[in-house]
Design brief:
Residues 19-363 form the GH18 domain. By secondary structure, this protein is of the alpha/beta class. The protein is built from nine helices and 17 strands.
Length: 363
């Protein structure tokens, strides 16, 4: 069996030299895997599994036991096959963060978790593993994340050597910026370890604004002349921290955020709002189109942030469409990034945005 020292650690990844066109598939949303048009993607992430909070082994629930085989089979047998990754974690708040904080705190518990992820991935036929950890809360947890990635990678190398199978991919969904500048104590991701041990990372370049704020704002501003809350800043921070651009797969949204305006006659970006709008403060892209059509909404493009917003009846929604997605994908290409991914499958309408992104990347 090869040791990690026998392996070239400088991976020229991502492994698909043409680039990553990824998307997360929320298994719990009711959008069937058989409905995924794989011609627009290279990698699909199954979301999500969680470790058991006591044993730290990956918990494959009865629901997942029923869903995963169909997911794998559907995507493996298409005319345009894609690689599949098993994503663990998700945006479940403090409870999920605590599980990962506890399991990453000691080598013994990290090993239990790592071994179980490999076993599950091989049992079901996944091509890789993805950690969606939102978010390490302090420097200590960042250090433990670095150790987890190193030991995980080494275990994958050993397992591939022993089994004779291709090494499982190792990726991670991360904050849009390499540094936390907007909430909590200042902290930074372990960029050196990420660059060395992950095949790539997925900066989540969205959720910049929402109804947690009393003013309207773009959910995924490409640029922001007034603050660092933008994709251009976030991606730049990762590169400045030392992560290879080719290991950055930029996150794109397939949804928008909605507000109720304080004054319907004042309706630009940054105007006062008094709560969430329709959809509980969030619209899938197809719902945005329905809202605009049914309400004869006024639709505006904001060139400073490269985002769209529309308003009608005192409600406001900020979102991306095919035009802004084209800008964002071209930005990713111009920076030499490894690709892009979407959150989440089932939110597009007739694959309008997915198709635009794929065509923009290839042209």
């Amino acid at each position: 069996m090869a040791s990690p020292m026998d392996v070239d650690e400088s991976y020229p990844s991502p492994p698909d030299r043409k680039g990553i066109k990824g998307a997360y598939w929320p298994s719990f949303e009711g959008f069937e895997a058989s409905s995924i048009d794989t011609s627009y993607f290279t990698h699909i992430f199954y979301a999500f599994l969680l470790p058991d909070p006591v044993t730290f082994k990956l918990n494959v629930t009865p629901f997942d036991q029923q869903k995963i085989p169909g997911f794998i089979e559907n995507l493996r047998t298409r005319n345009s096959p894609v690689k599949t990754l098993l994503s663990m974690g998700g945006g479940g708040g403090d409870a999920i963060a605590l599980i990962f904080a506890n399991l990453s705190g000691a080598q013994e518990t990290r090993k239990v978790f790592i071994d179980s992820t490999i076993e599950v991935a091989r049992t079901y036929g996944f091509d890789g593993l993805d950690l969606d950890l939102e978010y390490p809360v302090n420097d200590h947890e960042m250090i433990n994340l670095a150790l987890l990635l190193q030991e995980w990678h080494e275990a994958l190398v050993h397992e591939a050597s022993a089994s004779g199978k291709p090494r499982l991919l190792l990726t991670a969904a991360v904050y849009y910026s390499s540094q936390f500048t907007t909430y909590g104590l200042p902290r930074s991701y372990p960029a050196d370890s990420i660059n060395k041990y992950a095949d790539w990372i997925n900066p989540m370049c969205y959720d910049y604004h929402g109804t947690r704020e009393n003013f309207t704002g773009p959910n995924a501003a490409l640029y922001n002349p007034k603050s660092n809350v933008s994709t251009s800043f976030g991606i730049g921070s990762w590169i400045q921290a030392g992560v290879s651009p080719k290991k950055l797969v930029m996150g794109l949204q397939l949804y928008g955020r909605t507000w109720k305006l304080l004054d319907p006659n004042v309706n630009g970006i940054g105007t006062r709002a008094v709560g969430e709008g329709p959809g509980g403060g969030i619209f899938d892209y197809y719902q945005v189109l329905e809202f605009d059509k049914e309400n004869n909404a006024i639709v505006n493009f904001d060139g400073q942030t490269v985002s769209y917003y529309s308003y009608a009846g005192g409600f406001w929604v900020g979102y991306d469409d095919s035009v802004t997605i084209d800008w964002e994908v071209q930005f990713a290409r111009s920076r030499g990034l490894g690709g892009y991914f979407f959150w989440a499958l089932g939110q597009d309408k007739d694959w309008i945005i997915s198709k635009q992104a794929s065509n923009s990347w290839d042209r």
